[in-house]
Amino acid sequence: MDSKLLARIGAVAFVAVAITATVIELTRKEERPEAAMPRPAQTGAADPLRDELFRCQSLGEAGPRDPACLRAWAESRRRFLTPGTTGLQTGSGLPGSSTESHSRGAAPGGE
């Protein structure tokens, strides 16, 4: 065989494999991302802090002036920044004193 003919056969085989791989990839159905990701375990009791944060979100611009929202944001920051903290600090789900919210800043930063 001639080397030119061998090179042509190799090129045709390469193009055929590339086209086959492309067709297979295009016909593959995509998995839904939510089915691939595990869902977090839901607890029986609702989190009062989460409910309070949703309420503060619905207040809009009045949220940063509401003392309950300031306490909720302080507790949220404390939970986020303290590693290994999953439980509530007090029975109500919000910190007992509002001094933490006033010492660290009243409103969440520029969001």
From TrEMBL:
Transmembrane segments: 6-27
Key words, A-Z: Membrane, Transmembrane, Transmembrane helix
A Pfam match: TrbK
UniProt xrefs under InterPro entries: TrbK
Chain segments carrying region Disordered: 28-67, 80-111
NCBIfam families noted in UniProt: other_trbK
The protein's name in its UniProt record: Conjugative transfer region protein TrbK
Organism encoding this protein: Enhydrobacter aerosaccus
